[in-house]
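go over this chain:
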Amino acid sequence: MITSVLVANRGEIARRVFRTCRDLGISTVAVFSDADANEPFVAEADAAVRLPGDSATDTYLRAELIIEAARRCGADAVHPGYGFLSENASFARQVIDAGLTWIGPPPESIDTMGSKIESKALMADAGVPVLDRIDPDAITEAHLPVLIKASSGGGGRGMRIVTDLASLSDELELASAEAASAFGDPTVFCEPYLETGRHIEVQVMADQDGTIWAVGERECSIQRRHQKIVEEAPSPLVERVDGMRDRLFEASSAATAAIGYVGAGTVEFLADESGAFYFLEMNTRLQVEHPVTEATTGTDLVALQLHVAEGGTLDEHPPPTGGHAIEVRLYAEDPANSWQPQSGTLHRFSVPGVASEFDLPHGFEAGAGSGIRLDSGVADGSVVGTHYDPMLAKLIAWAPTRAEATRRLATALRNSRIHGVGTNRALLVRILEHPSFQAGDTDTAFLDRHGLEVLSEPLADEGATSVAALAAALALAARNRRDATVLGGLPSGWRNIVSQPQQKSFRRVGGPDAGETDTIEVSYRISRDGLLAVGHDDVHLVSMEPDRVVLRTNGVQRRFEVATYDRLVSIDSPLGPVALELLSRFPSAEDHTAPGSLLAPMPGSIVRIAVAEGDQVGAGQPLLWLEAMKMQHQVTAPVTGTVAELHVTEGQQVEVGAVLAVVTEEDT
């Protein structure tokens, strides 16, 4: 019997496993890097062991350190979570050889499915439909487009689309580097790229006696960079196509049996609208999106993992399914700006109407009730860095119908308070509210077809942002009067004779109006007749406090909640969330950079430099590559000209905003 579980992972999945262990009376052990020392999962464990360093390769990918931590804490079992070493057969063997219980499939199964090259051949032999693999050296124009994939791991890392034969070599190199960084294995392969299709997967569970459950299917078609951002169960496509579910379950069970699988796993397929499908891969671990299956079956998949690892058996038939569940992944990233990861302090993270965290409410049954579940790796005050995946949390809505689950989830996202770090929240809301999504018309080309630029627009439009800025200025004025030590009862900026309006300058943080020179000017004064604000003749002040302002526009009254963190001002209202930077009244020369300066868009490590000072470059030409959150990001020349300055070297760590290089435009 398992008495203590070490989770060889971090963040949200560590907290998820800890929750089930607490329910079962099992003690918990966390391992943590220096970057994660103050994160919630560390505090929640019964014991925690430091892994010195920040990068994954120095910490969470060090099998020997993790096993030693288990020994020191007296843990008798290891749960790998997902990512990192979760699909590393060598790690599983080391855990077993150390006399610990491995909460996962046999190492031989991981080996077989860990190589996507070998697994596809095995699946073909088992009668499961597969896409053909292409040798990179044999690719011609006739094969294009092709998809480069990492042989080990997943999550979109080491994955690249190639549409131009001339770029194949560079893309193979980048994909291999990303795979090596994320999974410790640089092996990649190629297969035909299907530009549209449905990503359907089946949750399987198997015990040591050979009983196999196909627990239910999930649709995960809406993806960015081949990584899922919206997942749901059941699949709208499978619901429409007669007999498709039975065929999917049969193929998944055959794949599971072919490798003698034990534990929780996921068999992934690419399907077309007719219901034909092809095997993609099998994830020999728990999936990020497992909560939607839990919500539609009423099961605890982590509890089942522990049960099977202890030698327990499954019932003859899997649990019935009911209702609908949708999950979205909230990432610290800017979708409109090449998905750039965002970092900084998450000052506040609050989701309204949460019925449970990492669990379903007590007494829940599949298809019954409705609500919001939050699985989060962060809390107020968490520091979001660039060493790991940028996912902050998962929000899951369940309800009797898909329409109700969609509405609940969109509303919860809109009303969440997320201060300090940019996220993909607006994109997620616009996806959920899009008519095509609500009709179940989703595929892997959803973002391209409907326009990422449109889908990622801020929830607050230009007019709403302007009113929010006015509310922010009024709240700041109220704060100043509250904190005043002399004559605090007088209105802000009071004069016997009116001199000039009160003024505040802001810059929007994130969104299309967030350029260095784009500012929002607020000019107002409060007279005997009430608020007089330039450009807001129809806005009337109802009340103003340091953290709340109520305004009435065209007879409609709205509340603006205002929070300040140094120069960051976060405004939440029914018009949409707005983040503003309060600009200094007296900017210094240090606030400016030389023309042509290329600034680091995020903290990270310089992994490759392709130019030298004095080189002539063309607009759009790659100059260097910055690695952050396991992904490599190109920095390109903004204009045709000369590399006048190069301030970094390969391997150097840089902070956000650091000057990487200066390109001077050629004299025209």
About this structure: The chain has a mean pLDDT of 92.
